[in-house]
Amino acid sequence: MSVTDIDRRETRISPYIIDDRERGLFRVARKSFVDEDILTRERDRIFNRCWLYLGHESELSKANDFLTRNVGGKEVIFNRDRQGAFHAFMNTCPHRGAMVEREARGNALAFKCFYHGWAFNNNGKFATRMPPGTYPDDFNSDGCANLRSVPKLAEYRGFYFLNYDAGAVSLETYLADARSILDMLCDHGPDGMEVIGGEQKYSIRANWKLLMENSYDGYHAIDTHGTYFEYLADAIGGAAEMPAETHVWNLQNGHAAIEGNAPWGRPVAKWIPAWGEDAKSEIAQIKRELVSRVGEEHANRIAMLGRNTGIFPNLVINDIMAVTIRTFYPLAPNNMNVSAWALGVKGESEGFRKRRLDNFLEFLGPGGFATPDDVEALESAQRGYAALDELAWNDISRGMLKPKFEATDEEQMRCFWREWSDRMEDRA
Amino acid sequence: MSLTSGKSGLASGAELDHREIEAFLYEEAAMLDEWRLDDWFALFQEGGSYEVPQAGASDEASSSTNLFYISDNYFRLRHRVERLKKRGNHSEWPRSICSRMIGNVRLLDHDEGVCKVASRFITHRSKNDVTDMFCGHHLYTLSFASGNFKIMAKRTQIDMNTLRPQGRISIIV
Ligand code: FES
Ligand SMILES: [Fe+2]
């Protein structure tokens, strides 16, 4: 991963973006947030072709475990078969469409559709015997009665993704330098990470791309989240100052991250006085273990610096005062469903887990001291876009001509939008 | 109706009257509806807690192992209330208009000056020309002495499948 260079592409003017390299101006057409035809095109060019986050291996810890989830607008079963192999099936009956599994999670050897009773082994094979003559003898020789597998399923270090395009590039190629972010996350503990009890499912009445922009927007922190920083200052017993030095990483293929040292404590492994002396020795031990495993320099980066990462098109991994993964999908140009999880180190103590979750809730999620204000900002912007005839463009030029970008610039969003417009205009 | 004849005797010797419990809960809801937030915070005993597990979570879910929406100790609850009063709390500025209906009040248990109370709620929150509804039940641990209740713990169980479309819990539900 290298420091973001101004990439060498030409100035581009399209219906969606103006990317003026010489003048250092970047504009995004507001109609990208409100137009039905654009959403239809996004479904085709983006959600049906990009790798989309499905789930984490820790959510299916045993053979025969399953969960159901909406991924990119389609219902999916994510499960393990009797041998423990991972699968992902479209959660729609090959007979006449009903959802084959309607529970959120469980453990099952087989799935049975409630409508007419077709049954399937958990490897997807059709498993109902019919009286002879009911169907042609060679029925299902083409697999028409099996559960339909997603066209592509792959994992990187325990993070499972699917792709609705059978011709897509490999997940590793797609993730490109974003793999280094997942690597650092997996290195938090000696045994990797796991999803912690429960999925936050909420929605925002705004365009889905606004949440991607917001999730690594270092520029808004002080203005939007002033009240959070006031709380934090009291909690940590000192000024809550934002980092003087930050990095912006272009992770390629539309993925990007910002990185910096923020004032909050981090479960891996940055102690703050508010956590007390017991926690201090526990954190010191976590740090020692980390150093012994990955070396001093890398350990310092993992422990001391927070990272907000956007993986194109709709996965956010924020490794800040806690670790959250969130993904989101548009229901309409002005409405998205969000799913968010907390990640923790496998095997950490209960007291530590509690501290991690407390850290999560002080900032993140529908009841946190920050996320609701983000929601308000996104919904407010969405309402503003009704005036797109009068004001047609957003500006995300901040810092564009700087030799080195900072987290309070908007380069990370430009990484997203360049990829987005390439795909929307069939240049990718 | 007096409930003192039910289980063990009351340490304070005070009558634990169902109507008093209801009156307390109605007044609490009114404080929130009317944004009398300092009064509301003063209902909590020092060291009290306020929790909102995820929509659909069981009454037994624990904030040490489950991801909640809110798990406030007394310190953070005070900050939640302070934040609600600030202009910089953008989600609630300008303030939303809220209406809280309380019903099905039940005394679940009482002993040694402490009682457990449950109620059902429907809360409407209106802002930006959108009205959202929250429904579920509250669980209280109250201390009572000489006709005075204090909240030791309040838990709001949201009896909904998900937080769609509401999206946020920026009020005290
Ligand atoms: S739709 Fe599933 S069995 Fe008919
Ligand atoms: Fe934010």
TrEMBL record, chain A:
Pfam families the UniProt entry points to? Rieske, Ring_hydroxyl_A
Q: Please give the SUPFAM superfamilies that the UniProt record associates with this protein.
A: Bet v1-like (SSF55961), ISP domain (SSF50022)
Record key words, sorted: 2Fe-2S, Dioxygenase, Iron, Iron-sulfur, Metal-binding, NAD, Oxidoreductase
Q: Name one GO molecular function term.
A: 2 iron, 2 sulfur cluster binding
Please indicate which superkingdom the organism of origin belongs to: Bacteria
Limits of the Rieske domain: 52-121
Family the entry assigns: Belongs to the bacterial ring-hydroxylating dioxygenase alpha subunit family.
Protein name stated in the entry: Rieske domain-containing protein
Q: Which organism is it from?
A: Hyphomonas atlantica
| Record lineage | Bacteria, Pseudomonadati, Pseudomonadota, Alphaproteobacteria, Hyphomonadales
UniProtKB/TrEMBL annotation, chain B:
Q: Which GO terms describe its biological process?
A: 3-phenylpropionate catabolic process
Is the Oxidoreductase keyword given for this protein? yes
Q: Name one Pfam family in it.
A: Ring_hydroxyl_B
Q: Which UniProt keywords apply?
A: Oxidoreductase
Q: Which Gene3D superfamilies match?
A: 3.10.450.50
Which terms does the record give in the GO molecular function aspect?
oxidoreductase activity
- What InterPro entries has UniProt attached to this entry? NTF2-like_dom_sf, Rng_hydr_dOase-bsu
Q: Which family does it belong to?
A: Belongs to the bacterial ring-hydroxylating dioxygenase beta subunit family.
Q: Identify this protein by name.
A: Aromatic-ring-hydroxylating dioxygenase subunit beta
Organism listed in the record: Hyphomonas atlantica
